[in-house]
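Hi all, long-time lurker, first post. I run a small reading group and we've been trying to get comfortable going from sequence to structure in the token notation. Rather than ask abstract questions, I figured I'd post a concrete chain and ask someone more experienced to write out its structure so we can walk through it together at our next meeting. Sequence below, copied exactly:
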Amino acid sequence: MRRHLPLSALFLALVALLLAGVPAIAQDGTRPDGRVQVSVDGDFTLPAGQEADVVVVVDGDALIEGNARVVTVVDGTVTLAGGTVDTLAIISGTAVIGPGSTVTDDVLELNSRVTVDPSATVGGEVRSLAVDLAGVGIAIGVLGVLAWIAFALVTWIAGLALAAFGSRQVRSAEWLISSEPLKTLAVGIGMVLLPPIVAVLLMVTVVLLPVGLALLLIVWPVLAFLGWLVGSIWIGEWILRRAGRPAPERRPYLGVTLGLIVSTLISLVPLVGVVISLFGMGGVTLAGWRTLRQSAGPVAPTGYAPASGVGI
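-- Answer (accepted) --
Happy to help. Here is the structure in token form:
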């Protein structure tokens, strides 16, 4: 019985890369060299005199007597019996390149055994896919780190801008988080659930489709990001107050920096980042609603609000 290894993701990626370079097949079938042959959980034979662009066999054996551009076998045995293949890939299996067979380019293997008859021809080399995959993994890792740094920098700049131009609104939302935490959290949860529902209802009508799309793809994500920033600033200033800072800054630049660092670290714990964003969204929404209704006077009490004339 063959071993079934968890290589499905690698297989799908490999097939996608292979198919991307295959020319389109004529609808009338006049291009015998434009075929793609796929066999899953079964054996496959490419007889002598026949051609194929791509042959993919998963959990089965392949016998290649004809000509193929690319042959990939996963968890099986591929045997070249006088056939010609441009590139041969074997994953978790065995490749036998028999007498009179030709591989014009490379033989790629991963966790596999490759035997080459002395009378066979391999134009390239037999090399391991593990090296290529390691290189790809390192490149993806580096790109991921660079993307994370770029996102952190953009977030920090956005937080500083919010502190500079919206400090009064930030103070109001912070005060609501501290004084009415349950109501703020409930409103935050509502702002997660309500916009998608409203957006779908709007998109049902053709006239309001752009409005629904804007709500779903622009307003909702921006509100979530703003909630994350406000929640992070609240955490930063809470830490500063606990550390004995006598009074809050006119504009919470230090709270932004400290809060984003702490929030990023504690958000490594599942769902913590979501909770931070929920409180922030709730605080922003409540503060905006009360400002529109003008029902609460100054939302934040003295000591939480910025100095007169600060903010917008």
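A couple of things your group might point at:
The CA atoms of residues 215 and 270 lie 27 Å apart.
The longest helix spans residues 129-165.
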